[in-house]
Design a protein that fits this description.
It holds the Pfam family cNMP_binding. By secondary structure, the protein is an alpha+beta fold. The protein is built from 7 helices and 8 strands; from the N terminus they run E-E-E-E-E-E-H-E-E-H-H-H-H-H-H.
Amino acid sequence: MLNNQSSDFGINWGAYSHLLEEITIPAKTTLLQEGDVSKNAYFIKKGCLRLWFNNNGKDVTFQFFFENYGVSSIESFQSGQPSLFSIESIEPCVLLVISKANMELIMQELPGYRELFQYHILQRMHHYAKLFLSRIKNNPQERYLELLADSPQIVQRVPQHYIASYLGITPVSLSRIRNKVLTDKK
């Protein structure tokens, strides 16, 4: 996505690299705290981030992002309102960081970037709709099997307690489901 000569809507990112800062962070680093206003957006060069919120003291994970994805609290970033969720690293990460002011500058100078940004918003909304419908229509085992089919990198790289939270179940239930799935495959 952020190559010097990206094919994403014909944008030449190399001309704007000076507006991005590369940072390296360890696992379990909070980039945005729920309730704070988002001032930055992130592009993952290496690692994994999760989006989560506090539900009456319970940590609820609702999305994971891996290499080559942009991440922010879009609503907070655009509106200046407090974020509804936190952004945290699961693995050590190498990220490109862009400030709101620099993002706005790129959007003014590159009409194609606004389209790219809107495209990524639509992708995220599709993910939320799919997650919402899965929680309504699928039982926990079906949600786990869907996760295995659609996003195997999550099962391979994310700690089990975050996966359980993402699926809306307890870690003990996830362990039982995983064992049953393994037994059924034999």
